[in-house]
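Lecture notes, unit on protein representations.

Consider one protein chain, 183 amino acids long.
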Amino acid sequence: MALAATIFKAEVDISDIDRHHYRHYALTLARHPSETSERMMVRLLAFLHHADEQLKFTRGLSETSEPDLWLKDMTGQTQLWVETGMPESRRLTQASGRAGKVVVYAYGRNAPQWWKQTEKAVARRDNLVVYILPLSVTRALSEMAARSMRLVCSIQDGQLYLTNDDHTLHIDLPACLIRDASP
């Protein structure tokens, strides 16, 4: 018998001054039995950074042909494909062909080595953006995980501030960016 996903609820107020996006989101995150709180919170961070009414969490770990998040337009075309962790270069190449923009939020002790091994294989993918999140950030995110979360997120000049009742986390997104898509 398979284990069921654990459901987390997040009430989030976003003020993204960089994109002029201000909204309240009532999010439901299903944490796969094999998923850590760290990975789930990185998925939430990715959502916050790209927040949009059409941005959706996918089946993720349960469906290997889908990213962790995606944004599709009215025709069903994938505009944004978001991966967390350290995906294989082949997966990124395929995603780059299927989506207008692919963003990776890599994390973990081996993320810099993963990028060194992956960079050459995806060098020609001009719609690929890669962030490497420091361990201190992902650990702090993990500590903010709760079955019921109330968060406030502010983004300005690439600086993301995430606050709950007990903590405020500052993430310098430009400092985490190691590969940007060509203009």
